[in-house]
Amino acid sequence: MSSSGETAAGSARPPAFGFIFISAVTCALSIGVMFPILPNLLKQFTGGDTASAVEWNVIFATSGGVMSFLAGPFLGLMADRWGRRPVLLLCLSGLGIDFVFMAFAPSLGWLLVGRLISGATSGVFSTANAYVADVTTPENRARAFGWMGAAFNVGFLAGPAIGGLLGQMDLRLPFMAAAALTLANAVYGFLILPESLPLDRRTTRFRLGRANPVGSLRLLRSHPGLLGLAGIVFLSGLSQMVWPSVFVLYTGYRYGWSPGVVGVTMMAGSLAGIAVQSFVVSPTIQRFGERGAMLAGATSMSVSLFWQSLAPTGLWYWRGMPLGFGGGLLNPGLQGLMTRRVLPDEQGQLQGVNQSLMGLASAIGPSLFGISFAWAVRHPEAHMTGLPLLMASVIMAICVGVGVRYAR
Question: What is the pTM of this model?
Answer without folding.
Answer: 0.82
